[in-house]
Design a protein that fits this description.
By secondary structure, this protein is mainly α. It is about 60% helix and about 10% strand. The chain is built from 6 helices and 2 strands. The protein has a two-stranded antiparallel sheet with strand order 1-2. Helix 1 packs across helix 5. The protein is globular. The relative contact order is 0.08. The N terminus is likely disordered.
């Protein structure tokens, strides 16, 4: 079974049935993503009541990677430039991000968190981390590290 589709239709286990591991992965990822979207919405509103859920991911990226061009952010999140511009404009209007001239190209600008944006984001992020610590209190640290490693591996492979 080759050809069109997602590429998973032909994945068959050794016994001839559907590959149960990939079905289980799909099911668990669907639950995880649904919950993550809901939590991102809650987290964004905790940063500022007027924020949409996608804003939280922008804060994470800008805090981790530092100032970025809007086109880099759009590419990272897999959204169009117009969508990213709209999201950034809303954050700018609230004073949570600012744009500075790109030293490498004066025609472009770099988006960065303002002090207010960074402070609000980090407060919410720290509270989220505490929730993870409580939820995973009975996990061994090595298990937590392994989950993080596997999720990173999955995310890196999903980029291309």
């Amino acid at each position: 079974m080759h050809g069109s589709g997602t590429g998973n239709e032909g994945r068959v286990a050794a016994g001839g049935g559907v590959d149960q591991e990939f079905l289980a992965l799909e099911r668990e990822l669907a639950v995880f993503l649904r919950r993550a979207r809901a939590q991102s919405g809650e987290m964004a509103r905790e940063v500022h009541p007027e924020l949409e859920p996608a804003a939280y991911g922008l804060f994470v990226r800008l805090d981790d990677a530092g100032p970025q061009r809007a086109t880099e952010l759009a590419g990272y999140f897999g959204v169009g430039k117009a969508t990213m511009s709209r999201q950034l404009r809303a954050l700018e209007d609230l004073g949570l991000v600012a744009r500075d001239p790109d030293p490498a190209d004066g025609r472009a600008s770099l988006v960065r968190l303002t002090e207010e944006g960074r402070s609000r984001f980090r407060s919410v992020r720290d509270a989220r981390r505490e929730r993870y610590v409580r939820k995973l209190a009975d996990w061994d640290r090595a298990e937590v590290a392994e989950l993080a490693r596997l999720l990173n591996h999955f995310n890196v492979r999903s980029e291309g």
